[in-house]
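Quick note —
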Amino acid sequence: MSPQALTPAALRAWLQLAHAPGLSAAVLQALLAAFGSPAALLRASDEAIAAVSSPAAAQAVRASERDDLDTRTRAVLAWLDGPGNGLVTLSDPAYPPRLRDLHDPPPLLYVKGRLDLLHAHGLAIVGSRHATPQGLADAAHFAHALSDAGLTIVSGLALGIDGAAHRGGLDGRSGTVAVIATGADLVYPARHRALAHEIAAHGAIVSEWPPGPPARAAHFPQRNRLIAAPAIGAPVVEPAPRPGQLIPARLLNAIARPPLAPPASTHAA
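Predicted structure written out below.
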């Protein structure tokens, strides 16, 4: 299934609302359900918007016009000209159902590569950025076996376990999805640039941010819900001493899908 084509005017309206300060994704989803499209929402009166949501939502919609919208629109259109690049809106039938079911689904998904992988059964593999050689080998072996079994491997392109999981997913038959915490045109960390190109060619890279924004601390917890949502479970390989890398596992528990505990070594008898 391919994303629907957007006119520049329609894209501008989506960008205006998707990144409007004070307008949460959950509220925007409710408003779009009521008004049908971003253009119709932007044409609606403050009274009509407030009746559906709240006066604060009406104020956020009204204040969403920004001077840089035309520049942002041109940047996204230029990115969409790149090979394999696609943009999926929340109202597009191609939008992945498991992401749509989130409390706060991203209004826009920037996808480089195979959108179909976001509709397949996935498994989120998470763990330490400072993994041991054994942990890296276990993650790659585990991901390869699960990919061969028909599961898409989902992770966050970070150093350590993430990178090993993506490598295993690529080596298997089902592939891998990298959910990134930067703009759709960037690779972070830079050390994974070659891996990212391979994922884009044979799997998918996904971001909810348009081209441009660098990695920011606040983006990573937000990104993690998109790692968890497509997955039926989340094996944790070599848990990190800091809890941030277990956020996807906690999110899976919150959306009624189980975190999983693989054996100490997937090579063990």
